[in-house]
Amino acid sequence: MGGLVDGYVPGIGDNVAIIDDVLTTGGSIRKMYAVIESTGAKIVGLYAVVKRTEVTAEVLINGLRVNYLLAPNQLL
Predict the structure, then answer these.
(1) Partner residues linked to 64 by β-bridges
(2) How many angstroms from the chain centroid is the CA of residue 42?
(3) Which residue, 51, 64, 46, 57, is CA-closest to 22?
(4) CA nearest to 29, candidates 41, 47, 42
(5) Which of 14, 28, 30, 73 has a 20 to 30 A CA-CA distance from 44?
(6) Residue 60: count of CB within 10 angstroms of its CB
(7) Under DSSP, is residue 4 helix (H, G, I), strand (E, B) or coil?
């Protein structure tokens, strides 16, 4: 899977949450979305531990909002 999936490869009937460590532009999550989508699995959520960008607008990928645990001002 292009080196993005190691181990179990999800397929039809699987529900998948994509989790990234740091959200800056959403590029990594977009790549993973495309890879997981190609397997036929259902993507049920998008998450990041830290939202690095100061942009206040929601980050949407194919209609799903990327949720995050911490914003930059919470890391102080």
Answers:
(1) 61
(2) 13
(3) 51
(4) 47
(5) 73
(6) 11
(7) coil
**Mean of pLDDT values over 2-25:** 88
Q: From CA 14, how far away is CA 73, in angstroms rounded?
A: 36
> Which pLDDT score is estimated for 59?
75
Residue range 21-64, pLDDT digits in tens: 988 888 889 999 999 999 999 999 999 998 887 655 677 788 88
The number of residues making up the chain comes to: 76
Through-space distance between the first and last CA atoms of the chain, rounded to whole angstroms: 37
Tokens standing for residue 37 = 């989508």
The pTM for the full model equals: 0.82
